[in-house]
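Quick board copy: two proteins, each given as sequence then tokens.
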Amino acid sequence: SGFFGSSDPFGGDGNQFGGGGAGLHRIFRGFGGPRGFASGFGDPEESPHSEIPPLEYTFACTLEEIAAGVTKKFNVERTINGKPDKKLFEVKVEAGYKKGTKIRFEKEGGSVQGYPSNMLADLVFILDEKPHARFQRNGADLKTKVQINLKQALLGATLSINSIDGKPISLPISGITNNGRTLKVRGEGLLDRKSGQRGDLLVELGVTMPTSLDDKTKQLVGQCNF
């Protein structure tokens, strides 16, 4: 198998349907071929093997799985020699793969309706990312939001946050912090497969204002010269 990057595979006129086993979604991009209706893939009798429409499935991984790398196993149904066939495939997701990465198994997609039965399509798995409760991805960088209170915003503090790997990170805050201030923790993002280096973790700070003040606190605040 191999992989190659691509633009967002979910754009265009490709519709998604269920099927192919748990966690997989089949993509249908056209049918027919030389003896059917137009498929948009050219004439398979005059085109190379790669012009046969592949059997495509999308599957989703968590950011934790993409950060560490993971191998997924899927049972895929295809047609071989005119008969239904099921085969287990191990799909290896390397650390740092991007959404839309395609993992291809040549000639493992079976035959395609409208094409000669001896011409086998490729099987392609397309990576999607599951939404994360704490992190947003931007290339190899990750971004998260952390709330601090007014005292921490004015006097500074040392925060403890967890990286995508679950590792605790000590994050000192100095000076006065305005709402939306962003701190950078180098090397705590995802692997950049081009450079071989890890991206950064961007921590956006939000300041939570108190909902009420007691009389003593009001007097103390009133003595401040902001």
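And the next:
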Amino acid sequence: MSESVENGADDKVVIEQRLLKIDEIFVYRIPPMRSADGHRADDWNLAKPLSTCSLIVCRRDNDLCINIMGERPKPGAPVGAVETFLFAQSNVQVDFSNPSHKIDHWVNPVVDSSRYFAVRIKDSQTGREAFIGVGFRERTDATNFRMSIEDYINSLKREEKAAALHKEFEQSMSLRCQSSGESGDAKLEKLPLPKSSLSLKEGEKLRINIKGTRANPANKNSPKIKKGIIGMAGLKKPPPPPDAILASHDSDHQGPTTTNNTNLSDVDWGDFE
């Protein structure tokens, strides 16, 4: 799910894409990390979470927003009506050129469980940052949360690589145009298409499977067709000679032959009155 958000200040269109939504998570107030190994879920008092919320992970431009949504009674509504509000938010801004802006700065899995994470949140009003604990009831939800973060990181790497290739292509084009004295559009028309290498690398093998040529092991014991009648397997039998046709015609005009001549007088009819 993606949405385009238009910023009125500089008329920039920002694309927002939802990566994950989980209806139930547990939020914990966690103590400072005791050792350099990492956070431990056993220190969080897991039986008493701070709140039960929902989680939405979305990408907004180049940032990853981890929104923790809570519920509260809706004012002026009937009893039992609730509304959702932003309980906490983590705005992830990964920069591969800056070691302090890696994903570990915002999201850290605990060392003693696969269902709990320490997430860095920031107060938009005061600017203060702190870690809170996020836990999932199902292990599959925790796996989906981890995979959504990995998809975000991989997409940033692909986009960065594509931008570097595009920049390199533009630089090479500008150098060629300057050396030849032609305009960029004219030079593009004369450029040959890039050659693709179809040769096999060392150690690679090419396998080709052609239908109908592979021997069927089930037909090993089937009778073989003689060489002289290979081409006659699918043809009908030739018609009989004229003498055989005449003989069969004469036999049709003769009366039917009886194979069992039973004498009716020998039949025992019993007493008949």
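Board note added afterward: The longest helix spans residues 139-180.
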